[in-house]
Write a structure and sequence with these properties.
335 residues, 2 domains
């Protein structure tokens, strides 16, 4: 407790303040203002000696001091509330903020190779919606945009097989992709953008028309017995922002009772940077249809090979030739 007049801390020295109250009660049965304040620990011993009861009640100078002390206390309380909690409570709130900001950073992670989000998906058929949401659409983008050794210009990309990396928690992490490329014999006819369409909606419509044309063209060529060029692609998913952190400048929000992020502040916390996933192409190789038949026939064995180690190589897709035993020539005996 602090004195309401001078602001000094009220200290109980040898119970001197309470002794004053007891002595006063011996003379009268009712406490005056001065001794009531002493009993309630509102004034210190020094002020109790300096002022009489009448002086405390009627003197404007004392009343002004009391008012100034009240204002000072209010300002201190406001400053403390603005600064926020301290000690264990502060650490608790900052830990909660860091958990929240880290979860948000993980949600905001994005892929370089990812199909555009469908807008107004009800206007597309179920097969296309399934394709966009599937891993095959991502695999097409990887082969088309990132496998520099494969010339996909004027070609349709058909994913023959797609294998998710063993024990990976990410749906977009592939151990290998087998894709077949067909020449574009049918050309898609793209309509003009409508006035009511947004850019995203128009891009969705163009992508849908492209998918319809590609599906029809590939099916027709397969019916005619046409075979395309087949490639094995080994992608490796990595986070460009791995091990990188952002500084979150924080301040205490007294209304909501938590820390919030602001542009400038004296204090900050380090939060993991939102992931930016990209694919590195480890290897890409063209194979013939005889090799493709071998792979499809022995697919389960090949997949089990890829499970043994994370770094998949093209050797896993080749038949293992039995090693020829070296014939030992008998030594000539001396005559």
């Amino acid at each position: 407790m602090d004195c309401i007049i001078c602001g000094e801390q009220v200290v109980n020295e040898n119970n001197r303040l309470q002794k004053k109250v007891k002595d006063y009660l011996r003379t009268t049965s009712e406490l005056d203002v001065k001794h009531l304040w002493i009993k309630q620990w509102k004034i210190c011993y020094g002020c109790s000696e300096s002022y009489t009861n009448d002086y405390l009640v009627n003197n404007s100078g004392v009343l002004q001091k009391i008012e100034e002390q009240k204002q000072r206390k209010k300002q201190l309380v406001k400053a403390k509330r603005k600064q926020g909690p301290s000690g264990v409570a502060r650490a608790h709130y900052i830990e909660r903020y860091m958990d929240y900001a880290t979860c948000k950073a993980e949600e905001n992670g994005r892929y370089i190779a990812k199909p555009a989000r469908l807008i107004n998906s009800q206007q597309y058929d179920e097969a296309y919606i399934t394709y966009v949401k599937s891993s095959a659409s991502t695999a097409v983008l990887i082969v088309r945009d990132m496998a520099e050794d494969i010339d996909t210009k004027g070609k349709w990309i058909d994913v023959r097989h797609l294998e998710k990396r063993f024990l990976s928690h990410d749906e977009g992490d592939f151990s290998f992709i087998i894709a077949e490329l067909f020449s574009r014999k049918q050309k898609p006819i793209y309509p003009k953008k409508m006035a009511v369409e947004t850019d995203s909606e128009y891009k969705n419509r163009i992508a849908y028309i492209t998918w319809q044309t590609a599906t029809a063209d590939i099916d027709q060529q397969r019916t005619q017995g046409i075979k395309g060029d087949v490639y094995i692609v080994l992608p490796s998913l990595r986070n460009e922002h791995e091990g990188m952190y952002d500084k979150h400048y924080i301040a205490w929000d007294d209304k909501r009772r938590h820390f919030k992020r602001i542009r400038e502040s004296d204090q900050y916390v380090s939060i993991i940077k939102p992931a930016r996933w990209r694919y590195d192409i480890v290897a890409a190789k063209k194979i013939n249809h005889q090799q493709l038949r071998y792979i499809e026939k022995n697919l389960s064995k090949i997949i089990s090979k890829t499970h043994k180690k994370r770094a998949v190589t093209l050797a896993a897709f080749s038949p293992q030739n039995p090693q020829k035993k070296k014939e030992s020539t008998p030594k000539e005996k001396g005559g």
